[in-house]
C-alpha cells in the first residue's frame, strides 16, 4: 500500500517541465533577495505538502500495525515511534526554514533534506514489513 513518496524534484517533474527548467536555470545566476525569498517559499511549500503526505502514510502504517500480529506490531510500533520523532524534527526544521533570513536558509536546507531523506527511508522500511 505504501506508494513511493515523491521528492521535491519528483514533484517539480510532475509539473510542466518547461516551467521547472526555466525556473531551475534562473536559480543559478540570480541571488537577489527577492529571488531567494521566492525559492525559499517554494521549497517550504513543497516540504509542507510532502510532510502532509508522509504524515498520512505514517497514520496508515499505525493503523496496519494495530491490526498486525503481536510480533509484527511490537517491531512496527518501535519503528513508528522513530518515524514520529523524525516527523517532529522535520516540522521543527521547516519552522526554522520559515524563520530564516537571507541566504541562511540555504544552510538549513541541507539539514532539512537530510531529515526528509531519513523520514522517507524509515517510512519505506516500516512499509516493507507489511508486504
Protein described:
Residues 37-100 form a coiled coil. This is Coiled coil domain-containing protein. The chain contains five helices and no strands. With 131 residues, the chain is an all-alpha fold. It has one domain. Helix 4 runs antiparallel to helix 5. The radius of gyration is 17 Å and the shape is elongated. The termini are close together.
Secondary structure: elements and pairs:
Blueprint: H1 8-14, H2 17-27, H3 33-67, H4 70-99, H5 104-128
Helix pairs in contact: 3-4, 3-5, 4-5
Mean pLDDT: 76
Provide the number of structural domains: 1
Rg for CA atoms? 17 Å
Q: Which percent range describes the beta-strand content?
A: under 5%
Cα(first) to Cα(last) distance is: 8 Å
Order of helices and strands: HHHHH
SS-based class: mainly alpha
Low-confidence stretches: 1-29
Main sheet makeup: none
Percent helix, as a range, is over 70%
Tell me the number of helical segments per DSSP (H or I, 4 or more residues long): 5
Q: What is the molecular shape?
A: elongated
Oligomer: single chain
Q: How many β-strands, per DSSP? A: 0
Task: Put the structure in a nutshell.
With 131 residues, the chain is mainly alpha-helical. Helices cover 82% and strands 0% of the residues. The protein is elongated.
